[in-house]
Give the backbone structure.
Amino acid sequence: MSNPTSMICPGCGTLINTDEKRCPHCGAYNPNLWGLGPALNRLFGGRIDVLTLIPTACIALYAISLLLDLGAALSMGGGLFGMLSPGNIPLLVLGMTHGEAPWWTVLTATYLHGSLLHILFNVLWIRQLGPDVGHFFGPARYFIIYTVAGAIGFILSNLISGYPTVGASGAIFGLFAAIIVYGRNHKTQMMSLMTRQMWQWAIMLFVLGFLMSGVNNWAHLGGFIGGWITAQILVSSSEYREGRITILIALLCLLLTVLGFVLSILEYFPLLLS
């Protein structure tokens, strides 16, 4: 297959040749990003739905964690809330985080889940909030917010409690925060109503976390803080097309997460054989 000869400039959105050293329209240097430009445009530019990639990855990794230890997965020791729970060793192999865990687990644990209800609720929230954050900020900024919020949530959790933990809820609280930040900076009637609703949902879920066992409230708090800070940094540029720097940061988040899964499997896979 021949390489494409044209691409969309990530700086101004104009169609240009891939061999341009500078965009002739906006002057952006190296718009092709060393040959990565077309692929990044497909990933974060709408042809590939990055909003779907996150819940799909969560579901796929949950299925893998069950298959790695079917005995634990089919055990009903945890009752309804523990239905189809992966064993601890498969979760450790795939990147569960805890107080003494390697650095990469704060990225990988966001895509892992501890039971059927756990992943069901989290995927539903991601599908509910993700499209709005992607629409307001753009897909690359959405991925950055999701990644940073999830990581900061687990960092806070590991520093304070240190208990083994998985789940996307910290990142989800970061999405709540991102929509609130956007609404505070775009004061229309619709955004005011949406901001109020996000506050209500976030507070309700945070309070419920104290009424249920096994809920990582520190990750929720850290994720909300991480999402708020990241959204505050990104909201001023949310009205503009996602540029090269934003896309490269999103790519870095993706590569670090994938690297984390590889490192975790290499580190802990022998545990499955013992």
The mean pLDDT is 87. The longest strand covers residues 6-8. The CA atoms of residues 208 and 263 lie 35 Å apart. The radius of gyration is 20 Å.
